[in-house]
Amino acid sequence: MAEKRYLLTPGPTPVPPEVLAVLAEPMIHHRARDFKGIYERSLARLREVYRTANDVLLFTASGTGAFEAAVANLTSPGDRVLVVSAGNFGERWAALTRAYGADVVHVRLEWGETPDPEDLRSALAEAGDVRVVYLVHSETSTGVVADVQALAAVAKDAGALVVVDAVSSLGAVPLETDAWGIDVVVSGSQKALMCPPGLAFDSVSDAALEQAARATSPRYVFDWERTRKAQAKLDAPFTPAVSLVKALDVALGLLLEEGLEAAFDRHARLGRACREGVKAMGLQLFSPDEDRSAVVTAIRAPDGVDSGDVVSSLRDRLGITIAGGQGDLKGKIFRIGHIGWFDVFDITTALAGVELVLADAGADIERGVAVTRALEAYESHATV
Amino acid sequence: MAEKRYLLTPGPTPVPPEVLAVLAEPMIHHRARDFKGIYERSLARLREVYRTANDVLLFTASGTGAFEAAVANLTSPGDRVLVVSAGNFGERWAALTRAYGADVVHVRLEWGETPDPEDLRSALAEAGDVRVVYLVHSETSTGVVADVQALAAVAKDAGALVVVDAVSSLGAVPLETDAWGIDVVVSGSQKALMCPPGLAFDSVSDAALEQAARATSPRYVFDWERTRKAQAKLDAPFTPAVSLVKALDVALGLLLEEGLEAAFDRHARLGRACREGVKAMGLQLFSPDEDRSAVVTAIRAPDGVDSGDVVSSLRDRLGITIAGGQGDLKGKIFRIGHIGWFDVFDITTALAGVELVLADAGADIERGVAVTRALEAYESHATV
């Protein structure tokens, strides 16, 4: 029998069969009328998922491409910007803004910390004249989902533009681009949007576009104005990943059919189920035990166990792919993703596999309780 | 009955069913071992198709992304570079090098002209101290395939690095990256490589990497050194378009199974068949009538006929997608692509459709000869 595989990482995430099916359709031309209809609907659906009236610009790129666009279009060398980081993707904002010659004020928290709006207020007051604040909504490396509503409000108070990495959060946890006044929301296709990787997005406010018009950093394929003008005519500036746009159209249709609020609730329950199961077997959470952290659950490896071995054993023995730790957390934590096309039996599969592997490794693990506890927690709608 | 569609443009091109099939497989993780095997084989197959021992760097991007990489990594503001253009994609080199602040010597030919190596020699001598020469192999907007072997030799004589756009030529017409001493060959997935759009490539010589180490233009996702280091560990620097890499692996396997020389011969015969059919019905070629121009055939619309109407009628009445003219050639030419997964019946479909539409538009067209003449020309192995 062919081995069954379980993709339980925080991205790429499982792709629903309806979405996979359109990938296998014969190629069509990106300037043909049938593609334009798909392109128009995808862009409209993105705006709906983003909850914005702004343009959402679509790039054929990894998520980091949309990060880079949000730096290249807003930065002239020497501009002062502020980056809040508490993990791998926050560090990426710092690396990118430095690569573009910004004067970077880096509010660098320990990996796993949750950024505090009042700390941001102090940092902005101290720095003075910050043009752009770069934030991370869901820090995929640690499982922390920040309160970007509060953080964005502080940044707006200081007169800065606000850019948010929502690659792993968009569609999984509440994000109100317009209501929260976020100038640029960066996201990608391969997380809660249930598509293969290869498409990335920037929503752009009028204020962001105005600053882009003055920014002198060189850019071409990631140039917002070129992309915006082309999208207005439903004519991508460069040949887009046609198959992936078709997939996006179908996947966003599925998400909107479920309803964003229902999807947020499902993700909150998946996260709760995962955390409760983890705690039931006696493991320690690395990510916060709160409903907002519904994207990925980061778990400390038991004493004496290398988390990389847990990941390898799950993959090699059981066909289950989860993620290890990044950076300094390598070997120390493992991460179970639960965004996109996930239900509770993906969580119980992950928990049962982790329990089996850790028990076999001789770790002190409570057997036979995690799955039941996860199922109970999933049914509970109460906010913890 | 569902309408049958015929994609006969110079890109995106038809994707073989074996390639479409892998796109519909369940998602896998880009750091999982099964993906690493696919990634390694794709990169090795790319080097084989490129005929290079250099690294071929793979980006998740439109072809223009790999153009941009070849500018961003080689340019410091003020560097003198020379661009040879004779169509839309040559103009793109000029736009990109200017966007990165290069001192651009633009040898700008009329669209449709074939660049002359001796003219390049004179231009280089006059310009002096040119660091990089940017060339186009197959100018998709006009159907001209340049003699890049001779052009590259002239550029090397002048001590410049040579960068070649081979987006629509790689795998269709002979290109010897190493034997011809080309420092950077830029290509993309959606032309002769028979994949969907979304992947783009730069081969990089040691000399190109040395210049990149000194180049000060900001870049991040397109940074060669970051990409090269990651690929050496079979670990993409950013989440790649996993599905498209799987497709590329299969498609390159098909191409190499056919054999590059056999593929070049097939494309030469397809081009010949198309040109002979076009001439037989009394139309005038815009692209040169030579075997090298085997990628796309550009045809002048008959007097009094707008080529855009030909394209629309083919699409709307017959389900056949071909391409119109770009830039100043809009309305004046139409283009039949024949790269990648094409055989002679794709050519006869295009010719029969064009004949029907032009005859109905009242153009003075010889009826009933194009298809037969095309089939005869396809069988002829003699070099015209």
Model description:
The structure is a homodimer of 384-residue chains. With 384 residues, chain A is α/β, with parallel strands linked by helices. The first copy, chain A, folds into 2 domains: 17-257, 3-Layer(aba) Sandwich (Aspartate Aminotransferase, domain 2), CATH 3.40.640.10; 259-379, Alpha-Beta Complex (Aspartate Aminotransferase, domain 1). In chain A, 42% of the residues lie in helices and 15% in strands. The first copy, chain A, has helices at 17-23, 33-50, 63-72, 88-99, 117-127, 148-157, 206-214, 224-232, 242-258, 260-280, 307-318, 344-360, 370-379, and strands at residues 6-7, 55-60, 80-85, 103-108, 132-136, 138-139, 144-145, 161-165, 184-188, 199-204, 296-300, 320-321, 323-324, 333-337. In chain A, the strands form 4 sheets. Chain A has a 7-stranded mixed sheet with strand order 2-10-9-8-5-3-4, sandwiched between helices. A 3-stranded antiparallel sheet of chain A has the order 11-14-13, covered by helices on one side. The longest helix of chain A has 21 residues, at 260-280. The mean pLDDT of chain A is 96.
